[in-house]
Design brief:
single chain, 86 residues, mainly alpha, 3 helices, 60% helix, 0% strand, elongated, mitosis, coiled coil
């Protein structure tokens, strides 16, 4: 395999200006999104308090977020061993 010298990249003033403008644009979008989410969360919290809903436990909040809906387990030995009685 032939070896070649590394390519030299030069950073120009136009490149720096373009980078700064894109970075500022992304930061402003992120700030607007965070403000909108904070406002929506505040409205939801106010609505939940106004409706008098009960507070969810940390486990319930996580289950809701990931979409996990635990099914209650059937109690007793019969559920594990069919209809056999001991």
């Amino acid at each position: 395999m032939l070896r070649r010298k590394p390519t030299r990249l030069e950073l120009k003033l136009d490149d720096i200006e373009e980078f700064e403008s894109i970075r500022k644009d992304l930061e402003s979008r992120k700030k607007q999104r965070e403000d909108a989410e904070a406002a929506a969360a505040g409205e939801e919290a106010a609505a939940a308090i106004a409706l008098g809903t009960d507070h969810k436990s940390r486990e319930q909040i996580i289950n809701d977020r990931i979409g996990y809906k635990p099914q209650p387990k059937a109690g007793g030995r019969a559920a594990h061993f069919g209809t056999f009685e001991f």
